């Protein structure tokens, strides 16, 4: 486990993941003053309270996906995430409320119609790293492995499991700087990224262990048939046939790092919470006394 503490630590939360988890796990028995379902809001708020109570984070941002069909990746590959159903209107509305709660607690809310939460988190981490920050990415998503530097860690909050760069290798068989290439080779069914047909996770990891990068694999493709991997000759043929597709897939799997979201050391410093706004939200959402007291204690 990576040791992390002090003022130079930023927590970057994959907000959409935890809203979706709450939507699927919380019973549909919570309603606001207008009778609208708010089960995801209740679950997300409990998660956020526990995260802030446990971490005592001074620098923190919550990133949300607002680009389910408008991401720059859709322009590169229209079928990107086309396998996913769009969230129903009642969940879209709850996402909006979750952003309100995050902001009322004094947290930075990252939301963009061109970039995904992954890109906003990656750019925030890269921006603050130049100011001496280390990052804790609060998510279970494997894609974030590519962001972990020597002193960063990822935190699967639901399982309370944390790992650093070596944990990425333990999980995927590749190092952080190889994760985008790995996913470009073997694909990612979750995001409808095809990869190279016939190349699975083990083969992708073996290729990167030998060559180091996707570019080197394609530059030295004549060596592939002589590797000690199953079906090496067929693998080389597939790589030749689908080289351009592999490079296109890497444009999808690589997290953007150049969005201007954390250009100063104080960019994501937690602000004073808004008591009046939180009180109004608690009334509107019909939060119980325990949730209300937890929220008030956090501002």
Automatic annotation (TrEMBL):
CDD domains: H3TH_53EXO, PIN_53EXO
The keyword Transcription regulation appears for this protein: no
Keyword terms: DNA-binding, Hydrolase, Nuclease
Taxonomic source organism: Luteibacter rhizovicinus DSM 16549
Domain of life of the source: Bacteria
Sample GO molecular function, one term: DNA binding
Alphabetized PANTHER family for the sequence: 5'-3' EXONUCLEASE FAMILY PROTEIN, FLAP ENDONUCLEASE XNI
Family annotation (Pfam families): 5_3_exonuc, 5_3_exonuc_N
This protein's name: Exodeoxyribonuclease IX
Source species taxonomy: Bacteria, Pseudomonadati, Pseudomonadota, Gammaproteobacteria, Lysobacterales
GO biological process, one term: DNA replication, Okazaki fragment processing
Signal peptide range in chain numbering: none
């Amino acid at each position: 486990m990576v040791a992390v503490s002090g003022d130079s630590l930023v927590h970057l939360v994959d907000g959409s993941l935890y809203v979706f988890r709450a939507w699927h796990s919380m019973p549909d028995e919570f309603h606001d003053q207008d009778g609208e379902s708010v089960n995801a809001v209740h679950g997300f708020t409990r998660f956020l309270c526990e995260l802030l109570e446990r971490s005592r984070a001074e620098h923190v941002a919550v990133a949300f996906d607002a680009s389910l069909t408008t991401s720059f990746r859709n322009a590169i590959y229209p079928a990107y995430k086309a396998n996913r159903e769009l969230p129903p209107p009642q969940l879209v509305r709850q996402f909006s409320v979750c952003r309100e709660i995050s902001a009322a607690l004094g947290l930075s809310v990252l939301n963009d119609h061109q970039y995904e939460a992954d890109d906003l988190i990656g750019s925030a981490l890269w921006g603050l790293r130049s100011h001496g920050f280390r990052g804790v990415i609060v998510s279970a998503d494997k894609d974030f492995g590519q962001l972990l530097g020597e002193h960063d860690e990822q935190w699967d909050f639901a399982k309370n499991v944390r790992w650093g760069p070596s944990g990425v290798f333990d999980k995927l068989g590749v190092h952080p700087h190889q994760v985008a290439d790995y996913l470009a080779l073997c694909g990612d069914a979750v995001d409808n990224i095809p990869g190279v047909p016939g190349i699975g996770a083990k083969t992708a990891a073996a290729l990167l262990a030998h060559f180091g990068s996707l570019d080197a694999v394609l530059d030295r493709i004549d060596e592939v048939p002589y590797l000690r991997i199953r079906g090496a000759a067929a693998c080389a043929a597939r790589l030749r046939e689908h080289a351009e597709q592999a490079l296109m897939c890497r444009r999808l799997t690589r997290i953007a790092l150049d969005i201007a979201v954390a250009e100063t050391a104080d960019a994501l410093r937690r602000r004073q919470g808004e008591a009046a706004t939180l009180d109004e939200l608690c009334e509107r959402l019909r939060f119980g006394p325990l949730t209300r007291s937890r929220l008030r204690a956090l501002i």
